[in-house]
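Module 6 notes. Inverse folding takes a fixed backbone as the condition and produces residue identities as the prediction. Think of it as a translation problem where the source language is geometry and the target language is the twenty amino acids. Below is one complete input and output pair. Work through it position by position during the lab.
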């Protein structure tokens, strides 16, 4: 029996068949590329952590050699996961955590969020890398704060964003903004948390103040919020560790 290609039934059947075939192909492609995507995410996380404690560009650290370089400085067996009170949580892998997803998860109570902490060794010194995440003007922002051996002084940082405005909020990735954080203390002489303020009046030279990005006030304040929210947790851990 001849098929009537002009009928509505044929059109619907053809459309359904096309959707099934295309959907199947897309699913297979997604399954095939997933390991590569996961690998890329891991490499990017390694680079972000290393960038907080050293200039990866000047040292020739790229995606190709990131894993080898990462293992030179960071031992994941030493990595920790803290709860919202700064206590160590057992049975949670720090590197496997996706704090961006936790931050976006509206069903996850703030007190149940996890806070990874990576310990690095470089030139005989110990560094503590603290991942942070927050919200900018147009989407998520994130970063890594590197703390020195005294467990209170910021010695490096790296920041990133998904869609902040070029020339404005996107400037949080630039070295000049990162340099403004170096030397700041995350705790006072009593080991208590020192709250940061990102300012636009040029008073960033004062303790616990950092000059923001001109024209990028909302993004700058986003960095302030994510730093303060997360640093409180790590300061609690460092205070207990010192005692």
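Target side of the pair, the amino acids:
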């Amino acid at each position: 029996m001849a098929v009537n290609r002009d009928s509505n039934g044929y059109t619907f059947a053809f459309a359904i068949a096309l959707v099934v075939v295309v959907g199947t192909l897309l699913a297979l492609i997604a399954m095939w590329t997933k390991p590569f995507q996961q690998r890329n995410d891991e490499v990017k996380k390694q680079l972000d952590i290393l960038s907080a404690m050293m200039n990866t560009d000047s040292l020739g650290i790229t995606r190709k050699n990131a894993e080898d370089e990462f293992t030179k400085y960071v031992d994941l067996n030493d990595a920790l996961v803290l709860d919202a009170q700064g206590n160590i949580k057992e049975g949670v892998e720090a590197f496997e955590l996706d704090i961006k997803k936790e931050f976006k998860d509206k069903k996850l109570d703030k007190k149940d969020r996890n806070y990874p902490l990576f310990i690095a060794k470089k030139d005989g010194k110990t560094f503590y890398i603290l991942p942070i995440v927050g919200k900018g003007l147009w989407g998520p922002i994130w970063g890594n704060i590197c703390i020195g051996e005294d467990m209170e002084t910021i010695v490096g940082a790296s920041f990133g964003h998904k869609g902040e405005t070029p020339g404005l909020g996107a400037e949080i990735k630039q070295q000049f903004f990162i340099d403004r954080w170096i030397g700041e203390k995350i705790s006072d002489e009593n080991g208590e948390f020192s709250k940061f303020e990102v300012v636009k009046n040029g008073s960033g030279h004062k303790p616990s103040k950092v000059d923001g990005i001109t024209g990028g006030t909302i993004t700058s304040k986003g960095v302030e919020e994510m730093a303060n929210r997360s640093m409180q947790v790590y300061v609690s851990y460092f205070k207990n560790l010192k005692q």
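Reference fact for the lab report: The first helix runs from residue 8 to 51.
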